[in-house]
Amino acid sequence: MFTALITEAFRFTAIYLFGSTGETLTEKSGNLNLGIPGIMCFGATGAVIGEYVYELAIGGDVSKMQAFPAIVIPLLFCMLFAGALGAFYCLLTVTLRCNQNVTGLTITTFGVGVLSYFKGVLGTRATFAKASLFFTDGLDFADKLGWIGKVFLSHGFMIYLAIAISLLVAFVLKKTRTGLSLQAVGENPATADAAGISVTTNKYVATVLGSMIAGFGGVFYIFDYLGGVIPNDIEAFGWLAIAIVIFSVWRPNLGILASFLFATLYLLKSYVAPYLSGIEQAELIKMIPYVVTILVLIVTSIVNKKETQPPASLGLSYFREER
Amino acid sequence: MNPIAIELKGVSKRFGEVVANKNVNLTVYKNEILSLLGENGSGKTTLMNMISGIYFPDEGSIEINGKPVVIGSPRDAHNYKIGMIHQHFKLVDVFSAADNIILGEKMPVYSVRGEAKECLKALPTDSVVKEVEKDGKTTKTLDFNTLWGYLKVYLKIAALPFIKFGKKVAFDFLKKNRVKELQAVADKYGFEIDLKKKIYELSVSEKQTVEIIKVLYRGAEILILDEPTAVLTPQETLKLFAVLRRMREDGKAIIIITHKLNEVMAISDKVAILRKGEHIATVNTAETNEKELTEMMVGKKVSLNIDRDDPVNPVDRLKVKGLTVINHDKIKLLDDVNFVARSGEILGIAGIAGSGQRELLESIAGLVKFDGGDIVYYDPQKNNEEVDLKSKTPVQIRDLGVRLSFVPEDRLGMGLVGNMDIVDNMMLRSYKRGHSLFVDRKAPSKLADEIVHDLEVVTPNTRTAVRKLSGGNVQKVLVGREIASAPTVLMAAYPVRGLDINSSYTIYNLLNEQKKKGVAVIFVGEDLDVLIELCDRILVLCAGKITGIVDARNITKEEVGLLMTKTEEVKEVE
Fold first, then answer.
1. Could you tell me the pLDDT band of residue B570, with boundaries at 50, 70 and 90?
2. Domain ranges of chain B
3. Which residues are registered as beta bridge partners of B316?
């Protein structure tokens, strides 16, 4: 049972990890994008539309479907949709200096609504079960490598993509000038501006890329985890992804572990249910991630170490001082 | 004679109606430290901002190394090797000092076109076709050596864009030993600092050192320091001066803005004096003295004809004993301040901006926790019984029956709520009165009407948001509200700042009226002419210390000016 739990949890890490990596990247630029749940939904919508377009293009004959376009087309559509919504968020908050919280929440509402519309429209017409097989296809030799192979290597490519992106983001933030500039923008935009770093460009690029990454989370959930069914609960994972950003104290590499933990706790319920006396206890287990996030927030506030604090100008818009 | 580093010719700058700089001529030489001296609002910072590319001059020209230049942005200033160290440091707290220094550093220019031209020079000059004589016949053959020579050059040119990209990527990686490399440079210049440390672990003076290293690292030849000693202890100031002297020997031109005359005398080679936006003179430090500089700085006395009656039987109303306020950087903002404010008297407070005026008023108002001393209020309703105001909140102070009114410097931040109308702003002081569940709007509304009528506030009606009013009218609303509560102590910080002449006189009259009513008025001002004509006594603050409490009727502007700039002697370091 334990192996089964860990195996599923490892795979399920992807949805949290895409979301939290994207949000961390965005928040490092000082943009508190609360639209992430909506952007994950919107990105997923894009992927669904992309897959549908591909199916139409090959005449609706799913047997003619090929792996490469079946994977790449939805991913590109997802990037286009999620990126566009991220750019829209920047247009409102960076260029027009709207309130970031209000804008983010509006975008979430919008994204969730759009996905729910397409669930109604496309959910009955198209089947993505065939396309989903390409996403879940794992390595052939994984089973031969004993339990390690089964737990960690038997999954579709998206969880590995999630880990790779997260490590890459961690590397860029820590080891490159690009990362240094981006963090300067999130910490102290006036200083970055004076040093000749474009605050606007950095915010746009980080938010759009972050949105694209987060959008992949939605794609994973539909095409990999659910096997091609359009769901209506992506939003919940989006909020948890934001919680993971706090939990991992704005470090994408810690985000991998945090996402794994959250995935395990989320799935734990169905594995321990037979041993519990009632449904109430199982539901309580689902609450653990939220409680843990609050605890982490309290602990980091008490410790009050500068490194574990959010970017100093998170949530604030920047404009040059004028006389 | 040293060569000229930068020269300003007839530079003027206006902000709407206000003339910040008027026809300023200034020359700074290499190997020289120039002090820029002037009162608050004399246009020093505006002038320096024009050199560092933040503002663009309306008239006049700037020459660097003898060539006219256009400085349109901070980036331009950087290209002309001008570096400015602001009063408020521009550093990222969570980065190490070293990372702050390299932040925003640009890659050395790599022009593909230029490199290609270089490569073309290596083209072989021989022809590819070679004529070979063999058996008396000349046959044409390809010379593969020459051909390879051509090919090599073109291949290299084709590779240039990729080389550029590679260099870009390589430059983007942060070097592991970057701290060590910078540390070596810093040590060479004699800076005492550990560049591994994060900015938040550094003291103020160390942060300033980081700023200076940052500017030097970017190759600045002209350095501007805006009041660098304001935040430093005397020992740190000496260290800074040593650094500045070393940079002077290194051929840099240095401009330092400061109010402290003893520092001007200690560090600078020349002093340029600005007054009301105009350049008064540039003198050699060796040929002048503090008194002469003060005279040039404050100018001739201007008569304002403000009414002033003699105080009517003044009694002690507020006593401040040994007041000390220390900020989180362990700097004493107020140091052992002792004075008494009397009823029926206007006590003026003079001093360079940031000498502790704000902290003093806020301590009395109960907004700042002070680290030492006592504040005692003598209650006139209880036969001048003593009331201790130490560590009381504004609400507690009011509940004790102390009628204290405060007109803060930041009118729309601390005094009024900009988005609320005049009536609602009146209610900020009265909403807790009464026993009804609902607020009383009638009284504040009546008060608002009275203020608008009596003080001639120009506004469409009392339902207009105060932020839409002009500065003078905002101030009238604020002062009107504060005196409406019949205070016994009235504190006003810069109440006429930004006001036109008529509004200013309205405010003076209001203060005089309060004085006649027996209120103890504390007036923080910046214009010495006003202070001398309006107040009964003037308390002079300098760097958080009282340097004198003088009788305003028998003092000259120069004497107050000298007190304002009087700090401990700066000793020379060897």
1. very low
2. 4-94+198-298, 112-130+141-172, 313-403+520-567
3. B342
With CA atoms as reference, the chain A residue closest to B200 would be A306
Task: Using a CB–CB cutoff of 8 Å, tell me whether B200 touches chain A.
Answer: yes
> Hey, what are A201's tokens?
């460009």
* Separation in Å, CA of A211 to nearest CA in chain B: 24
- Domains with residue ranges and CATH for chain A: 2-309 (1.10.3470)
- HSE (side-chain half, CA atoms, 13 Å) at B426: 27
For range B358-366, the mean pLDDT: 91
Which residues are CB-neighbours of A43 under 8 A, at least 6 positions away? A78, A79, A81, A82, A85, A211, A212, A214, A215, A216, A217, A218, A219
| CA-based nearest residue in chain B for residue A180 | B103
ipTM of the complex: 0.86
Residue A184, chain B, CB below 8 Å: the answer is: yes
pTM greater than 0.90 (yes/no): no
Tokens of B333: 């903002």
Residues of B in contact with A177 (CB under 8 A): 102, 105, 171-174
What does the pLDDT profile of chain A (323 residues) look like in tens digits?
A: 788 899 999 999 999 999 999 999 999 999 999 999 999 999 999 999 999 999 889 887 888 888 899 999 999 999 999 999 999 999 999 999 999 999 999 999 999 999 999 998 887 776 788 888 888 887 777 677 777 788 888 888 999 999 999 999 999 999 999 999 999 999 999 889 888 888 999 999 999 999 999 999 999 999 999 988 899 889 999 999 999 998 899 999 999 999 999 999 888 888 887 787 777 777 788 788 788 878 887 887 787 777 788 999 999 888 765 43
Touching check for B106 and chain A: CB below 8 Å?
yes
Distances (CA, A) of B333 to B138, B148, B337: 97, 76, 10
**3-state secondary structure at position A251:** coil
B112 touches chain A (CB under 8 A): no
Adjacency order of strands within the sheet including B345-350: B404-407, B489-493, B520-524, B345-350, B537-542, B545-551
The answer to whether domain B4-94+198-298 and domain B313-403+520-567 are alike in fold is yes
Pairing of strands B537-542, B345-350: parallel
- For domain B313-403+520-567, which architecture applies? 3-Layer(aba) Sandwich (3.40)
Q: Which CATH architecture has domain B4-94+198-298?
A: 3-Layer(aba) Sandwich (3.40)
Q: Say whether B250 sits in a helix, a strand or coil.
A: coil
pLDDT in tens, A119-137: 988 877 767 888 888 888 8
Residues 6+ apart with CB under 8 A from B219: B81
